[in-house]
Amino acid sequence: MLPKHYTRIVLAERPKTDFTPTTFLRETVAFDLKPGPGEVLVRVDWISLDPAMRGWAGWPMEVVTYIPPVEIGAVMRSFGLGAVVEVGEGCELRTGDIVCGLTGLAEYAVMKEGERLQKIMAPESNPPGVQLLDFLGPLGIAGGFTAYFGLLDVAQIKAGETLVVSGAAGQVGSLVCQIGKLYGAKVIGIAGTDEKCRWLSEELKIDAALNYKSPSFREDFKDAVGYLDVFFDNVGGEILNFAITRLKQGARIALCGAISTYNGLETKGITSYMNLVMQRAKIEGFVVSDYSRRYPEALRDLSKWISEGRIIRRYHIIEGLENAPEALPLLFTGGNTGKLLVTIFLRPRRCYANS
Ligand SMILES: NC(=O)c1ccc[n+]([C@@H]2O[C@H](COP(=O)([O-])OP(=O)(O)OC[C@H]3O[C@@H](n4cnc5c(N)ncnc54)[C@H](OP(=O)(O)O)[C@@H]3O)[C@@H](O)[C@H]2O)c1
Questions:
Q1: pLDDT at residue 350 above 70?
Q2: For ligand 1, atom 47: residue with the closest CA
Q3: Are 70 and 56 in contact (CB under 8 A)?
Q4: CATH class for the domain made up of 5-137+314-350
Q5: Cα 283 to ligand 1 centre (Å)
Q6: What is the fold, at CATH topology level, of the domain defined by 156-289?
Q7: Which of 9, 86, 15 shows the shortest CA–CA distance to 57?
Q8: Please, which pLDDT band fits residue 346 given cuts at 50, 70 and 90?
Q9: Which part of the chain is the Enoyl reductase (ER) domain (predicted)?
Q10: The ligand 1 atom nearest the CA atom of 285
Q11: Which of 63, 272, 289, 299 is such that its CA lies 20 to 30 A from the CA of 131?
């Protein structure tokens, strides 16, 4: 039975720096959602909070993007996972199917069937150890797939190489660290608290974890890393600038993101780039959706590694759609460890992540 009203969160204004309490507006409106031909109505059970949402709300710097910003007054864009509750004419999806895609911050969403709406295997046919919310984390586009293609395809990591990962205790970073270990690299992670560093060293069993807020960070980096073959960068800014001074010949830098710049507060550019010349190094940005044809390959390998217990994942779960706007800034203050999710209709006791 569909409710008489539903709640959604719309973009009220473009943030100038950080998200603020006036960036979003919560609206509870009469239920008027009806799927047309080729569309389905989805009840959104889980929402993924991602750094990209800062850009989708409007970049504070000049950038030509792969997707236009959300219009003011429109439902804020986000990945989500839920169940199909009504099916429009001519659809292959069925009521009860579990799907994942750009649902937005709303309890219900009408979505087009097709490439951008992925049908998830029924829970009983998932490989052992795989759970539904993994499809927004290690088996999701902005999580596992980003880590997988960024490290294996863009950075081309090889056994015996030294890999350094920034944002290492976040969702992408923690997966890059573990895939790096699976491929036989020496892995050093960088994160913003001692607790995160302990988690990386003790549970993810990487070779070393460095707190970039420590006054001795640069010395610690030199001691633990020496010089590096691959830098997987989620953070940009000063950390990237410093990492470029520590390259081996032929090093590769995969630019996944630059979260330190998203609020427009970190303004310094790269000054150490002559080292790219001296070390004949490559620096390459990527956007995961360019790999969409190869998602099945990432899904196959990542699900296998989860089933074999070779990938640990950690979820930071916020309860209730109304709390999503307040939770989003955690990504920028370092308040999350692992994947940041919001549960709407399902409660966390139903989730059984292994960390
Ligand atoms: N290229 C693509 O296709 C693609 C796809 C998905 C994600 N991404 C990018 O991947 C990166 C990681 O995304 P995620 O979803 O995995 O987020 P996340 O790492 O789970 O969360 C963000 C983390 O970044 C760190 N951080 C925030 N501000 C920082 C700063 N000023 N300096 C250093 N670290 C800072 C914080 O950890 P600390 O406590 O360690 O500071 C925070 O917990 C982002 O840059 C995102 O935009 C790119």
A1: no
A2: 257
A3: yes
A4: alpha beta
A5: 18
A6: Rossmann fold (3.40.50)
A7: 15
A8: low
A9: 17-342
A10: 1
A11: 289
